[in-house]
Q: What sequence folds into this?
């Protein structure tokens, strides 16, 4: 078996550390308790802060952020799964971050919608109605991300439906 050079070992360590940083949501997933819920709440809080500072959420930037986080999350979670030999470790929360951003996409920003989107996303993420649970089986980090992205779509549709029913 060929030996690794110092540069290869160093690059692998950097890759593993970067993957852990990204996959754990800037280490948020390492906080004991309910890391997925913490990640959803933190995402909603940052989303609200961005809205407060800019007075609006630019849909193109929001969608770009979702795509970037989903891509980085797929790569980082695949690396973590390979390194940890666990398909979806509990500390991997970048999928919750991406899913929560999907749940908030094009939703009018107010307290009731933020709470509703967060609660519905967590409910769909935990409950995993069809076909969310099946998506978890996809390989190489795709399953880690795909189930939460679809849970976000379900939550987003439900928030929009509630808003349509209440506000017409």
A:
């Amino acid at each position: 078996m060929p030996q690794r050079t110092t540069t290869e070992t160093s690059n692998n360590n950097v890759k593993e550390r970067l993957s852990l940083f990204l996959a754990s949501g800037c280490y948020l997933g390492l906080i004991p308790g309910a890391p997925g819920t913490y990640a959803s709440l933190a995402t909603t809080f940052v989303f609200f802060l961005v809205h407060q500072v800019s007075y609006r959420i630019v849909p193109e930037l929001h969608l770009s952020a979702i795509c970037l986080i989903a891509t980085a999350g797929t790569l980082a979670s695949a690396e973590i799964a390979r390194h940890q030999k666990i398909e979806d470790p509990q500390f991997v929360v970048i999928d919750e971050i991406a899913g929560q951003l999907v749940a908030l996409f094009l939703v009018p920003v107010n307290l009731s919608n933020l709470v509703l989107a967060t609660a519905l996303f967590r409910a769909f993420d935990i409950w995993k109605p069809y076909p969310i649970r099946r998506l978890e089986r996809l390989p190489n980090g795709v399953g880690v991300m795909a189930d939460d992205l679809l849970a976000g779509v379900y939550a987003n549709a439900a928030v929009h439906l509630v808003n349509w029913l209440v506000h017409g």
User: Anything to note?
Assistant: The first helix runs from residue 6 to 23. The chain has a mean pLDDT of 94.
